[in-house]
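To whoever is on call:

I kicked off a structure prediction for a single chain this morning and the downstream step that reads the tokens threw a length-mismatch warning. I double-checked the sequence; it's 428 residues and nothing unusual in it as far as I can see. Pasting both halves so you can look.
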Amino acid sequence: MGAMRGDVAGRAPDSVDRAALSTLYAAAFVVSSPVGLFLFFLPLYSHALGASATQIGQLFAVFALVPILARPLVGRGADRFGRRPFLLAGLACFVLAWTLYAASARVNILFIARVIEGTASALLLIPAYATLADLVSPNGRGAAIGRFQSMINLGAFVGGAIGFPLLFGAQLLGWGIVAGWRIAFTCYAVATFVTLLIARQRIVEPSRRAKAGPPALAAVTTPRGSMRALLPLLLICFGTATANGMTQPILTLYLRDRFTDNLLFILLAFTPAALVYAIAPAPLGRLSDRVGRRRIMAIGLAVAGLVALVFPALPNMALLGAIWAVEALCISAAVPAEGALVADLTGGAQRGTAYGLYSFAVGLGATLGPYLGGWAYDHLGHSAPFYLNAILLPLSALLVTLLPIEARRHRGPRGATTELGEATRAGD
């Protein structure tokens, strides 16, 4: 996977690093497996337990709110007390959450499960990103974070492919959606528990030297300067998350209102983009290591805005699915680059805090975006969320090009000047 935990030239990762990295990727895959079911089946399952429409909305809101509040605290704690305790606690909370989903017979149990799941997400993901940045050298972070993001998306895709047949099969057998839901989440709980046992053996705390590494960008020389340099990036991440959040919840409604109410056709329209999200972040993250974070972010966000602009004019669902996959490719390019840039801007001692703030900004945008998108869809027209996207994403791309940071320069093997964060990784 390239140079890790070494000097700029990049020595090969040791076996402990490899074991920890592969376990982090596996954990991301496993805990993301139920995500595909929540959007489609959580409303149906909670309604079967007697939940009102208001309560169903609250189930989604409470999950979004808990991580937003917890992320800055978790990031600070991961810097102070270490990455490993939070990683293991996150996996343990996921086991508990899936178990409660499987055992839930009342709506209030679902609320408890959602709170624990949101807590688990904050406990696991923030120290996971910090650990990746600790173990991987600056010229390989884009690839590592891209692969981690790919595993999250691939887990949701594969987990849905397993869970959907279980629920449909239970209904065909006359057991009902409740029985199918419980079978699916029992499987998720067992898989996550096995992952937790493996993680206890294979994930070790990164060395003090790895966590004390300096920032990769020359503009940052002090911890306070590191946080100041991070603020413009956090603003951009908030804007892009808000823009993406505006279209994701209403896309199904848009397809239904304009083309068809056949759920199978709508699912097929989503499939190309889902595959892109599962596959593309890893190679595109590697590309950001080679050609530069800001360049990849700016191009990805600008093209995504153009896609949003033409989206309402598309005449059929087949073309719409293809164009949506193009936007997925653009976002898959931008996200690993921005995640790696967070690590480049911060030294190891502040990295957990930085990722906590980064996750806070993204989560806040992802919470605000659906409300804005839904309001625009109802009051400004069905095309309005896409046009707002077409404004916000290119604006974010422009702000990316104006980020007040410069990469530290070093001499390459032939005396050429290259950027530390953009050098070709050893071993590629």
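Update from on-call: the warning came from a stale cache, not from the record. Cleared it. Sanity check on the structure: The chain has a mean pLDDT of 79.
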